[in-house]
Amino acid sequence: MELKKEQFDCKQLTEEVMNSMRLQFEKYHAKVGLYAEGDNFIVDADKLHITSVIYNLLDNALKYSRENPVIDVLLKANPENIELSVRDNGIGIESAYKEKIFDKFFRVPTGDKHNIKGYGLGLSYVAEVIKRHQGNVRVESELGKGSTFVAKFPYA
Question: What φ, ψ does residue 75 adopt, rounded to 5°?
């Protein structure tokens, strides 16, 4: 993976991704909000890959939600990094699987049915992109209550 870094406003990019997904959100009657803390969201990063990270996290939040999804996106301008959190009220993740979900091709077992399309690549891609930007990603989740994915990466 080669990074082509450029300067851009991460908050503006997040708004653009959310706008591009508006029809998907409407289809599922999702309530989606963007909250920002701080005022410097200018990063020197690979815009295409960061766009895909934001999209992946939002898409997963939608896919793994039940009826009437509520998705909160929080952008925090910390002194040393940008923090992007995506919180949902979805099905959550069993604690036994929290560390594995960032592995390539891993999908949380759901018995013999898998009604959610995918190959188990999205979160491994997210983790790799954030790692290549000298950052980290983690998940906080409670089964049946939802998940929060938190990605942190430096400004430059």
Answer: -110, 125
Count how many domains the chain has.
Answer: 1
Name residue 38's amino acid. Answer: G
Encode 83-120: b = buried (16+ Cβ within 10 Å), e = exposed.
bbbbbbbbbbbeeebeeebbeeeebbeeeeeeeeeeee
User: pTM here?
Assistant: 0.91
79 residue type, one letter: P
**Residue 87's domain is classified under what CATH number?**
3.30.565.10
What pLDDT, in 10s, does the model give residues 111-155? 544 456 565 578 999 999 999 999 999 999 999 999 999 999 999
